[in-house]
Amino acid sequence: MSPSGRKIRLGIPKGSLQDATVALFAQAGWKIYVSGRSYFPTADDPEIECMLIRAQEMARYVDQGVLDVGLTGMDWVLENGLQVDAIADLVYAKQSRGKVRWVLAVPEESKFQRAEDLEGCVIATELVNVSKQYFGKKGVNVRVEFSWGATEVKPPVLADAIVEVTETGSSLRANRLRIIDTVMESYTQVIANPKAMQDEWKREKISNLALMLCGAIAAQGRVGLMLNVRKEDLSGVLGVLPALKRPTISELAANDGEQWVAVNTIIEETTARDIIPKLKAAKAQGIVEYPLNKIVM
């Protein structure tokens, strides 16, 4: 039981984002346990009550106050047109830490080259309202039909084109579809019920949760580097190092009359293999690479 006896109700997106979201919470400091067919995961924080909800429905339950806070795509917030507070943007997806795209796609062999070519055609999608707005802004008259799934297989028999979400485009290519435009980019958001945010205790809890999740996102793909270097060689080392902002430099005790400093910085993990040998060549010593869980700016 929470010391205060209070809890926030947290929505975890069920489906493609579920595993990535649970992993993100673990990196942020909260362990969430999903078991069997239960829709009510447990968290190692007595002040959090979890529920698995489809991302498409999350904004509705947050808007209604069934949930105080939830994670879902910006696309579904726009699709539902509901009044929720966007607390933080978390740019991650099921396979990467990038954005996803909703794209307009047609069969490879079709004559369609742009959205305007689809006048009078049928478009299949889960993102009906956003798609209608997209075609409306272009002045193209189409019939947008809701798709219950397996949208990629519908052209050309059941639809002329589709609006579908993609990270890499591989599923579209596998179904012999060709992208002709991007309807919108989307990413995960922390959204909250406006009334919950008026409650001081819930607002602080939700804000702290969002802060730590953002810190975990910022740390993904980055590592820390520590090293020692003589002061006279520092400029050469700094010339090798990129930095998130600026490296931290600390004076070390003199050793046999030599002045040494410790340097601490953050770099992209993929660059470490190239940077560390250059640091060694620049006369750095005691180089340590270490993992990061969170970077809070």
Structure commentary:
It is built from nine helices and 16 strands. It is α/β, with parallel strands linked by helices. The strands form four sheets. The chain has a five-stranded mixed sheet with strand order 4-1-5-12-6, sandwiched between helices. It has a five-stranded mixed sheet with strand order 9-8-10-7-11. A four-stranded antiparallel sheet has the order 14-15-13-16, with helices on one face. The protein is globular, with a radius of gyration of 25 Å.
Topology of helices and strands:
Blueprint: E1 8-14, H1 18-28, E2 32-33, E3 42-43, E4 48-54, H2 55-64, E5 69-73, H3 74-80, E6 85-90, E7 100-107, E8 122-125, H4 128-138, E9 143-146, E10 161-166, H5 170-174, E11 177-186, E12 188-192, H6 194-198, H7 200-219, E13 222-230, H8 234-240, E14 248-251, E15 260-268, H9 272-281, E16 285-291
Parallel strand pairs: 1-4, 1-5, 8-9, 8-10
Antiparallel strand pairs: 2-3, 5-12, 6-12, 7-10, 7-11, 13-15, 13-16, 14-15
Helix pairs in contact: 1-7
Strand segment count: 16
Helical coverage, percent range = 25-40%
Radius of gyration: 25 Å
Shape: globular
Number of helices: 9
Rounded to the nearest angstrom, the distance between the terminal CA atoms is 32 Å
Report the biggest beta sheet as strand number plus sense, adding barrel if it closes.
5 strands, mixed
List keywords for this structure.
297 residues, alpha/beta, five-stranded mixed sheet, 32% strand, globular
